[in-house]
Amino acid sequence: MKTNAIILTFLGLLAPTVFSSPAEVDVAASCGSLGVMNVNTSDLPAGVDPNNIRTCADHPVGSAHEVLEKRDCEYGAPVGCSGGYCWKQCGDEGSGQWCWTANNGGYGDWIKCSTSSQCNTNMACGIGDCSACGCSC
Length: 137
Ligand SMILES: *[C@@H]1O[C@H](CO)[C@@H](O)[C@H](O)[C@H]1NC(C)=O
Known about the structure:
Keywords: Signal. By secondary structure, this protein is α+β, with helices and mostly antiparallel strands. It is built from 1 helix and 4 strands, in the order αββββ. The termini are far apart. About 25% of the residues are buried. Bound molecules: 2-acetamido-2-deoxy-beta-D-glucopyranose. 2-acetamido-2-deoxy-beta-D-glucopyranose (NAG) binds near residues 40, 42 and 43.
């Protein structure tokens, strides 16, 4: 009986590890080349909800508008909807820099749209360690 108790205790301690590990693998697998969003939740700016961080880091459309070459500058509209996602111009005025926008101060989900009227310049640029994150061109 003593042995059984020790084994059960051991399994009880082990169970959380056993069950959390495949979940992490599943997230990595479902994000694929987008990569998993990795943020230190104790380093988040004020106002960012740590429970509302997007799962995958990179933008599904990538680092280019569908109408532009890879990360070309955007001098036209201040905001737009491309490939179903909002982008906006950012950085210094006239620099042509732009970003994909994201909820939750840039840490949340990429903002979807069907027309550019659903996008605005108050939206935050997507933040994180990913090729389509941030403001550039
Ligand atoms: C997260 O940030 C805090 C505060 O800067 C730091 O003390 C901690 O080591 C960081 N954790 C990781 C896993 O990087």
